């Protein structure tokens, strides 16, 4: 679920921070700059793990700050494909079941990855698995909100944001796409709400 990513960046240190240790300034700046941000094709950056290389600092004409090229390792959230995770149901919609891990909310289990046959209950806004018993009758199993759910990671989507003209920013806000989305699956035995399998 978590990996160490090797990254490089240039850290700008302002004159008021020159009296501090360079390592401390770089650590604070990298955590501020990357912490809780999505790095495209890398994952969700959590926190700095360590600094592997600090090159010479340079001061450019017209800028009193120093600029330092740094190599470092960052703790990143990026589950591998087919990994099984346990999250909590945020809400359900016709698009599927939306799941959170607490620190990451952009997880969806689409309808075609639910147990068959399943239906969306418009009144209660929940998904229901129409489970066939051994006797041949149907028993409805609900995916309730705030319920712990076990799922398999089957896909990831990175969306790189590009700068937009000022007059289109407000329009884009309503259709904003998450920079990192995970797709899950619960269409096999043992997956789905934990309550489904308590007495199995």
UniProtKB/TrEMBL annotation:
InterPro entries linked to this entry: NA-bd_OB-fold, RNA_pol_III_Rbc25, RNA_pol_Rpb7-like_N_sf, RNAP_E/RPC8, Rpb7-like, Rpb7-like_N
GO term, biological process aspect, one: transcription initiation at RNA polymerase III promoter
UniProt-annotated location(s): Nucleus
Record bears the keyword Nucleus: yes
Domain RNA polymerase III subunit Rpc25 stretches: 83-197
SUPFAM superfamilies assigned to the protein according to its UniProt record, in alphabetical order: N-terminal, heterodimerisation domain of RBP7 (RpoE), Nucleic acid-binding proteins
Keyword Transferase: no
Major place of residence: nucleus
GO MF annotation: an example: DNA binding
Pfam short name (any one): SHS2_Rpb7-N
UniProt cross-references to Gene3D superfamilies, sorted A to Z: Nucleic acid-binding proteins, RNA polymerase Rpb7-like, N-terminal domain
Family: Belongs to the eukaryotic RPB7/RPC8 RNA polymerase subunit family.
Protein name as it appears in the record: DNA-directed RNA polymerase III subunit RPC8
